[in-house]
Amino acid sequence: MDLNLTAEESAFRDELHGWLAANAPQDWNEWREKPLDESFSYLRAWQRKLHEGRWAAVSWPKEYGGRSATLMQQALFWEEMARVDAPPMVNALGLGLIGPTIIACGTDAQKERYIRKILSAEEIWCQGFSEPNAGSDLAGLQTEARLDGDHYIVNGQKVWTSYGSFGDWCELVVRTDPGVAKHKGLTVLLVDMKSPGVEVRPLRQMTGESEFSELFFRDVRVPAENTLGKVNDGWNVAMSTLMYERGSYGARLHLIFKRFITRLIELARTVQRNGRPAAEDPLIRQKLAQLSAEIEIMRFNQMRAFSRITATGVPGPEGSLQKIFWSELNQRLQQIAQELLGSYGQLLGGDPHAIDNGIWSYAYLRTRGNTIEAGTSEVQRNIIGHFVLGLPRSY
Amino acid sequence: MQFGLTESQEFLKNSARQFFAGECPSAEMRRLMATDTAYDAVLWSKLADQGYTGIIYPEAYGGVSLGKVELMLLLEEAGRALLPGPFFSTVVLAGSVLDAVGTPAHKKQYLEPICKGEVRSTVAILEAGASWNLQDIQLGASNGKLNGEKLFVPDAAVADFLIVIARNGIFLVNAEARGLTISPMSGMDLTRKLYVVRFNNTPVEEIGPNLDLARALDISTAALAAELVGGMQRTLDVTVEYAKTRKQFGKPIGMFQAVQHQCADMYLETESSRSAVYYAGWALEENAPDAATAVSIAKMYCSDAARTVGNRGIQIHGGMGFTWENDLHLYYRRAKASETAFGDATFHRERIASMVIDSGSVSAKSA
Asked: In whole angstroms, what is the distance from residue A120 CA to residue A156 CA?
């Protein structure tokens, strides 16, 4: 056990630090609050710049435009990005999930065709997994693809698709063999979102914004060569994507949560409670201390998991622990923010009395999604129960 | 950066696990628990043969000079076996106080026999107020004598000498000293005995001023949290095993999500406790600026987690979990006693608050 940075890790961080100092945009605050359709080209340009510096996908192998970064270096990357408050990368799904899956499961021709444009944000990717009747029970999905000559004909509906309105391409999981057990008849297709028969409808969520879309496919023709991995092996392809999701999702959260708690402590010094600053109120102090401690433990858990994955080579089901930990912690954090802010906590952005332009009311509502998206807490506990603890499958 | 155990750390942990499984299985633990002191001379000499009694202390005093992470690993395994007797009191508590505040002569005289397994000792801290805040200590020595009493002193009856924390210094009292009486308190934890220690014009030897005690207490606090991690792991293991084999409604109860999800939460709480304890051990070893905060984070989290893991373990065992024959309650009793020892979660949250709210911010060593 040695938590000091190695020489390679320090060099990696210093190089990134220097690059960000010269290249990170200074005007992100002016764009941050705007809807994604307005800031999209700004964010696309930022990712292109990262790509030119070879920083867009540090985890990818060098031959595909990455840096073959270790997990610790990836963690350093996200920490540095958060430290300078860099804008997000607009092709997040392509970089984090779909690109790695194409590199792992794709043909040489597919890698040649898609990888570079994922890096440069020239083509934005979305992910067509969930359906109205297949959420946690993903293997029950019904969108079907029927082979017709050298094309598949796709019919069905997807939901909760991030970046759906901006997607040029979609990693789509479809049913190609309805005659076998449900997870055995699935295939992953790479679908051009401009194909005739694809319709995208924004889905309005409880925060009022639209981060997600519904996708409708009506007799959409997809070339058979766009199959990712083997036909009817789509479950394994999709699962490898989800492992990436659970493996790398949490790396940047520590600094984001830390920014929240630091701001809450600042606010506690000014908010009055029982005639004195809330920061002097014993109960508030207990709650802020509990949050501070859990935010650190979240990071310790992550560092331990990274070390374990580095030793074993693959992200394992233990990622479910991180997912439960950060999502439920974020909900507690936002609840305590509400308690601290009292009546002001409810005020929405734009209200002249709102604190921090309403981010606390927004975050409070948004965190309800944290324990649902990317695998509900219930599914994560099933994964721990079955795959980590070896208990019999409960469903 | 590498937050995993090294090969030699893995080796130490595994060999400690095997040692405790072989030398202190459940039956032996229960036999010792039923004695007055829970101390066994034969077991003690075996602990010394392993080098465990001198694990973190300098070779010059007969120790083996391992680090604080190694100490955490050893205590984790001791906690898994619910090791009874004065190991924690002697080696961790008295040893770390002597190591921190003793002169070389004191260390030669008192720490060395601890390392060699020749003596038992303990540290008397709490008084009637039961406060873990050292500023609340009232007992003071005058003219080289102590008068008054200390409460909740672990393993005092088998101590060859006691270290007494007084308001005006740290003092050493020989077990044979005049005017010293030691009488048992009936505590919930049957494997770690507690005592009232009374001084009546008892002659004492001063071993140091109060100043440097914080670090020794931080080491002990983290080590106690490590014991709790071992207890949680044991509780989790036996509970998962039970959930796989116990059948109701024709199925293993571990198939029911109401049971399975509790097991998942036990896993989450146990692993998170372990992360916090290992980090605290590393921070103490490196003298990291956040070491004291890291210790409080670990003790705070483990204090609460050990109780909830115990709650869930007993609940999942159903009626079996409520029987005397099942070991779960013995771990649960230890967890409750250790929850308050060296400050409960509320105490450490306030300590964290004073560090993160009143003076700057908590920061783990930044990647």
From this structure: 30
